[in-house]
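User: structure tokens for this one?
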Amino acid sequence: MVSTTANKESPLSKETYDALMQSSTATITTQLMKRGLRNAFLEGLSLSSRRQEKMVGVAFTLRCIPAREDIDVLSVFQDYDHPQRKAVESVGPGSVLVIDARGQTRAASLGHILATRIKERGAAGIVTDGTVRDMSGFEELELPTFSAGASPTTNLAKHHVVDMQLPIGCAEVPVYPGDVMVGDRDGVICIPRHLADEVARDCLEQEVLEEFILERVESGKPLRGTYPPDESTLKDYEEWRKKHKR
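Assistant:
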């Protein structure tokens, strides 16, 4: 049985991180599908940052339940140990804050000031299946943030933060603390932590092969024998790799 909590605090190896930074989410989905995983794409989320597109980091999870009017009042924000604030101050370097907002978008799940604090703590990004407020600030923030859009309404109107660093569902994808989150212009993918090293390695191989295939297609080669590559094309690929030291 695979542990879903092992290594949740440990950083990625440099080799795995570098390989995933060079791999598209499209390539990652292919590698995950080869391993039988089809529900890894967090559908409906888009990137707000104009300054930084690529995101690779370890999931730090935060879960919300519906707000209740007699509990979720503005005065709770005077408490520095409010669960949302506590989570922000707990996100570490290289982590991605992943918020289970139940897909509710009427009230924001996070604002620009808290996101800025997360950036200053060295986090790698933010992912929420809810909305964010102060979108203009997120667009200029040098921290990749993926969300379901914008809302000016504070989270208390809709969300009550209950716990962190437990398994959650975000955009209908299971995310466990320590899983690896990768994002780019196509969206966000969740890689189970125990598969991260091998997926990263094979993604890098696939990226190099597809670079070669793309060159062939751009030079006028037909798909037959090229994509997918036949034995002759693979032989040419090995020669190309040696020549380009790839």
